[in-house]
């Protein structure tokens, strides 16, 4: 046997390298999107059908609604952001985008963003998931990205169904204004996704995380509503995320408010990731 042949035989085999953080993040996002693949249908179609019905009703209710608005107390108009209802977009905004859609989407964001964290922990497979070459911070980042994408998909379905229904009903509905209204829901929902991730970095049960986040969501809406009605309580609106939500249909997109909500989501998620990285898994 030659020395050369022996050295080739004894040559060390290449060692498998762990995946990079970006590769792991991509895997988490793809897996999360597969898990949530039906959400745009289940959530989008249900909310979209209601919004579409509201848009289709506009030609038959526009006259009585405009007369009724004139008799509303100014406090009620201010509380619900109703200055006038002269278009189908404003009607959809008052009926759906002022309360129903933002509350539903924020609740979905809370559940979706924590599914791979406390949801997996409660089901008992988080240990197995983290035994892979996958860091907790990457898992949190992937959950937030999945939530952001699925939220956009659901809102796109709602927008499309509403626009089609309004167009078929002959309402001369504006696709751009409607898109601004639905798009404005996204940063608000992401802010509550960040809150849920923060809570998941401390707590171990998804029901507790959901209850606290959903309770905060409702409390913030009430604080904003009461602050609009009562001048004495108006300063307290600053603690409510709904103060920065506003009405994109009535007043247009407020870029500074959108950036503020997105920044809040990022900061809360970052803190939640740090806390989750340090706590025990049950």
Nutshell version of this structure?
By secondary structure, the protein is mostly helical. The protein contains 14 helices and no strands.
Any chance you could write out the topology, listing elements then pairs?
Elements: H1 3-9, H2 21-35, H3 39-70, H4 74-79, H5 88-97, H6 100-113, H7 115-123, H8 126-130, H9 136-168, H10 175-183, H11 185-200, H12 206-229, H13 248-251, H14 255-278
Helix pairs in contact: 2-9, 3-5, 3-9, 6-9, 6-11, 6-12, 9-10, 9-11, 9-14, 11-12, 11-14
What key attributes describe this structure?
74% helix; 282 residues; mainly alpha; 14 helices
Number of domains: 1
Cα gyration radius (Å): 24 Å
- Give a quick account of the main beta sheet: strands, pairing sense, barrel closure: none
Number of helical segments with 4 or more residues: 14
In terms of DSSP E residues, the strand content is: under 5%
The residue ranges in which pLDDT falls below 50 over 5 or more consecutive positions are: none
How would you classify the helix and strand content by structural class?
mainly alpha
Query: What's the total count of β strands?
Result: 0
Q: Can you write the helix and strand succession as a string?
A: HHHHHHHHHHHHHH
Helix content: over 70%
Outline:
globular
* End-to-end distance: 57 Å
Provide the residue-averaged pLDDT: 87
Description:
The chain has 282 residues and is mainly α. It has 14 helices and no strands. The protein is globular, with a radius of gyration of 24 Å.
